Amino acid sequence: MAKLMLALDVLDENEALKIIKEVNDYIDAVKIGYPLVLACGLDIIKKIKDICDKEVIADFKVADIPSTNEKIAKITLKYADGIIVHGFVGEDSVKAVKDVAKNLNKKVIMVTEMSHPGALKFIQPIAEELAEMAKKLEMDAIVVPSTRPQRLKRLKNIANLPIITPGVGAQGGKVEDILNELGEDDYVIVGRAIYQAEDPKNAAKKFKEQIKNI
């Protein structure tokens, strides 16, 4: 059975921790990005883990030269269990993060294609090459879009790696459209459809039940 990853992109620490407490029974991992970390600091990761003791992935989409990527990874992976990087900056930049993560026994997840419409113009044309690079560099997982099920299938087949897939819920992606492609090492990412719901706990429960039916 695939797992449910909460994308927690709120800006307030108290709200973030309240949501984590409410949905804890139904999520398998948490993904946080710049919005929450810039608002609250990296310490928010420890506070989240103290409540839910789940894997926390830093979705920083790191995309810089190798030496800068290395510095970002060293700081981030003191707190997070894994970090998301962009692949379009090249193998050397990705490898810089991977080397840091390997020494700390942490995960590196590489973006191949994003879920928003703008990704079609610049990222999608090189997505398959990125999937091949992710396979070569032995990434722990890749990011593929749930908003384009055929692309999800194609990129997963190329990389032959676990996937985390954003876009379900607010962006229009549906669990039922990708269910045949998901395995036990894969994660469905849901953000706004859970944390902006009137009842986040019930929303998370419904998504978890959908995934269980895969």
The CATH architecture assignment of the domain at 3-106 and 171-212 turns out to be Alpha-Beta Barrel
Coarse shape: globular
What string gives the helices and strands in order? Answer: EHEHHEHEHEHHEHEHEHH
Q: Are there runs of 5+ residues with pLDDT below 50, and where?
A: none
Any idea of the CATH class of the domain at 3-106 and 171-212?
A: Alpha Beta
CATH superfamily of the domain at 3-106 and 171-212: Aldolase class I
Average pLDDT level:
96
Number of helices: 11
Strand content: 15-25%
Main beta sheet: strand number and arrangement? 8 strands, parallel, barrel
Provide the gyration radius in Å: 16 Å
Structural class: alpha/beta
CATH fold-level topology of the domain at 3-106 and 171-212: TIM Barrel
- Helical content, roughly? 40-55%
Task: Please report the total strand number as a whole number.
Answer: 8
End-to-end gap: 7 Å
Strand order of the largest sheet: 1-2-3-4-5-6-7-8
Explain what you see:
This protein is of the alpha/beta class. It has a domain at 3-106 and 171-212: Alpha-Beta Barrel (TIM Barrel). Helix content is 48%, strand content 19%. It contains eleven helices and eight strands. Helix 1 links the parallel strand 1 and strand 2. Helix 4 runs parallel beside helix 5 and helix 7 packs parallel to helix 8. The N and C termini lie close together (7 Å). The model has no long low-confidence stretch (mean pLDDT 96).
Outline of the structure:
The protein has 214 residues and is α/β, with parallel strands linked by helices. It has 11 helices and 8 strands.
